[in-house]
Amino acid sequence: MPAMRTSRNNGPVLAGSPINPPTLIEYNHLRFLIADAPSNNNLNLYIQEFERHNVTDVVRVCDPTYNTEPLLNRGIKVHEWVFGDGEAPPSQIVNEWLDLVQNRFSGCYDDAEARPSIACHCVAGLGRAPVLVAIALIEAGMSPLDSVLYIRARRRGAINNKQLKYIENYKRRSKSAKCVIC
Description:
This protein is α/β, with parallel strands linked by helices. It has helices spanning 43-52, 69-73, 91-104, 128-139, 144-154, 161-169, and strands at 5-6, 12-14, 17-18, 23-27, 30-35, 55-60, 77-80, 117-121.
């Protein structure tokens, strides 16, 4: 494996190219890593982060940029839910996403380190992936605007204006105030 060093912004660097570290988003019992798209050249660095955060699933919402076999060999499931750059997700992807979130986070974990995480990435980790995470936060009881602010406080530049409008108008699966993912 190539040597890893640190860039000026303290992010990992491989072969002279900065690797943006994934952003951990935690809310109640939910844990997500938002990332930009790995490549075959740097996938090992991402896998190290995924293992550090107990990632059970990787959701890829952009065109493939790497071979999924190394993830699958480590027991990390890969979901291919591609949709347009800068766009809101189609309802089928939203439903599959929320089913995954509900399935992964429905258990109880006494040890915070043992809790699973879901990694989600698009090309830059600023649009499609943060939108899916915002939807999960809304389903967990956060207001739409608060979900965007919460993500943007941790991942600067996330969610464009078109996606913001979608999130502002997003309606939870359940009209009750109770969390439907819990």
